[in-house]
Specification:
Number of strands: 11
Helix content: under 10%
Number of helices: 0
Strand content: over 45%
Radius of gyration: 13 Å
C-alpha cells in the first residue's frame, strides 16, 4: 500500500495550496480518507476527513478555508487550502482508513507572515 502525497510549498499568509494524495494497493473507494497535520513540537491533529460516501468533516480551525474532496476514478484525495495562516504550517499527512489504517509520508506546508 502506498499513499503518495504532493503539493508541498511555501506561501505567504492569505495564499492557497492544493495537496494531493494518490493511493495504490487499496480499494480506494472503500476507504475513508483524511488529512492530518503536525506542527513542530506538537501532536498530529486531524484537519479534514471524507468518508467513502463523501461525507465531510473539518477541524474547527480550518472550517470555511479548507476543502477536502476525492476522485475515486483517480484514487486520489485532495485538500484545497485557502486563506492560509502561519499557524497552518506543518507536515501534512494523508490517511486511509477502513479495516486498517495507512499513512502517507507527509508533505511540508510553510506559511510565512
Amino acid at each position: 500500500v502506498q499513499l503518495q502525497a504532493s503539493g508541498e510549498g511555501l506561501v505567504q499568509a492569505g495564499g492557497s495550496l492544493r495537496l494531493s494524495c494518490a493511493a495504490s494497493g487499496i480499494i480506494f473507494s472503500q476507504y475513508s480518507m483524511g488529512w492530518y497535520r503536525q506542527a513542530p513540537g506538537k501532536q498530529r491533529q486531524l484537519v479534514a476527513h471524507i468518508t467513502s460516501t463523501s461525507n465531510r468533516a473539518y477541524a474547527d480551525f480550518v472550517k470555511g478555508r479548507f476543502t477536502i474532496s476525492r476522485d475515486n476514478a483517480k484514487n486520489t484525495v485532495y485538500l484545497q487550502m485557502n486563506g492560509l495562516k502561519p499557524e497552518d504550517t506543518g507536515v501534512y499527512y494523508c490517511n486511509a482508513d477502513s479495516m486498517r489504517a495507512y499513512w502517507g509520508q507527509g508533505t511540508q506546508v510553510t506559511v510565512s507572515s
